[in-house]
Every structure is written in structure tokens, then in C-alpha cells.
Amino acid sequence: MSKQRIVWAAVVALAFTGVVLVSWPRAEDVPMPVVQPVNPDYFISDCLVEPIKKEIRRLSDGREAECYVITTKSVPTDHPIGPWAPKHVTDGEDKGGIWIKDGHVYNVSGEFVAHLDELYDDPQWNLVREDGSIRVTDTKEAFDLAARPNVDPRYNNYAVECPVDVVEWKSNYNVYIIPVNPVYRSKATDFHRVGNGHGPVGVAFNGVKYDPPAPIHMIIKAHTIAPFDHSGGHVNPHAGYHYHAATGNTKEIEQTDGHAPLIGYALDGFGIYAHLDIDGKKPIDLDECSGHFDNIRGYHYHASAAGDNQIIGAFRGIAGSASVVEPK
Ligand SMILES: [Zn+2]
Ligand SMILES: [Zn+2]
Q1: Residue ranges per structural domain of the chain
Q2: How far is the CA of 228 from the centre of ligand 1 (A)?
Q3: How do residues 204-224 score in pLDDT, each as one tens digit?
């Protein structure tokens, strides 16, 4: 290419970039008539590693803001954890957790596991051995090989669960940086654009994280299931116990007007409320983030139904951050 042509190509490329930048709508802060600040007193003190601190921290868009620094253990104190997978085909619903498909919540009994071939209309599902026992990852090594996108072929057709005695997840801490006053933005932000893209999206009052949707399409590709317990949670050895569904088992803050109770905060500081109000009615006019506005709570989210494999859809505000740290 001649020198002139290179210059000409550069000019065209620059002009094009300019047009794209000008026409791309940027997210802006939108002042709201009502803003509910985060209330740190709602967190269960037994679940905190240290008292909640208020500090100036950097948010995910680079700005600095007054934030709460909340350091918690991965272990809830307001409900038991597990069970996840039944161990034998004769085990009842009390021996397993839940699994979700197309908006439905199923109790994971031995019978349910034995009929996964029918549920997914695929004869290759076969988690039950000849003696009636169910293939379950019962060591950390087995869990590590099965709980990854490219499941080790030895662990195809397994129920995947982290053995409860794995020490790492119980000892690691979760640190959440959440802005005190949430800021409403004109555009939503996808979870994968924040931090490492793997969440969490928020935190319950017991210090357990609300995670983005579980990658169910990847999990079932290897004919595995990774059941949640009846509280909507399961364990990852490093990041610990976390929720993919809100099922009403964690601490709730009742609302005096019959609105659904508050069940935690998103990383952007907006409150997350339960799916249903006290009359069992669903929220209306939710945006793509699963949130809406009212004059008491300001903008806030509603957790999706347990079968939907999402707590909230995206961030409406500017997220802080979250990390897992090993205790000093
Ligand atoms: Zn998970
Ligand atoms: Zn609402």
C-alpha cells in the first residue's frame, strides 16, 4: 500500500470511530426523587467477620464514592445448608435439594434423578448404578474434575456437589464494597462487564452472595446436574456457599405497606426484595434489570422466581465490587 493510501485509510477509520462514539448513547446518572441508602444494621452480626466500615472506595466505573465495606463468612447462620444430591434411587425428597428447568423447580429425589432421561428427552442420562446408588462427586478431587466447563469424561453422568467437609470454602471471607447511596443510570450494565464477570450480583443479610445465573446449559451438556439446596444455594470450594435462587429462607426485612420484604442488597447499593408481596402477588413493570421504582423504596430490584435461574437481570446502578480472601 502506498503512503497516501495508508493516510487515507487512517482518516476514514478515525472518522468512522468518531461517528460510532458520538452516536453510541452513553450511560448517565439520573437523579431520582427517592433514594434509599443501604442500611448496614440489617446484616446479621454473627455472619460478619468485623464491624461494617464506611470508607471512600472506587466503584466499577472508576469514580470514588462513600461505600460500606462488608466482610462476611461464607456460612449462613439463619438456615441449614444442603442436602444437594440424593445418594440412592430410593432416597426421598428430604435427601436432596432442588433443580430447575424452564422456569420449573423440581425436588431432587432419587426418583427424579432416575428419570432425568425423560425430563431432558435424552436416553444418555444415566446417573444411577445397577445397585441403585447414584453417582455423586464425594471427594474434592472428583468435585474439581466435574465442576468445570469441560467436565472430565470420567464424571459424565454425575450429580455434582462439593463435599461439606472441604475446609477452604468455610474459612474464606467475602468482602463486599457497596456504595452507601445507589446511583440510577440511564443504561443497565451487564454483570459480565463488572469485575471478573463472574459475580456476585449482591449479598443476603447472612453475608452469603447472590450469584449470576448458574451455567446450566454447560452443566447438563455432560449429563451432570449440580443441585441447589432448598435455600437456593450450593458450594464452590474457593468462593464458598452462594445462591442462584431466593426461596425465602434467609433473613427478611418486612415492609409496612405489604410490599415484598427486603432480602439483601445488590452490589450497586439498590435493595433486592423478594419476588412476591405479602398477598402472593408478583411485581409489575419490571425493567430488564428486574427492578422498578416506588415512592417509598425508590428504585429497587425484585428477585426473580426461583425457577428462573436469576436473582436480578443486570445492574441499574454503579456496582462496587466483591472479592474472596483467605483469612490472615
Ligand atoms: Zn453456583
Ligand atoms: Zn417493588
Answers
A1: 40-77+172-213+243-325, 93-168+216-236
A2: 8
A3: 999 999 999 999 999 999 999
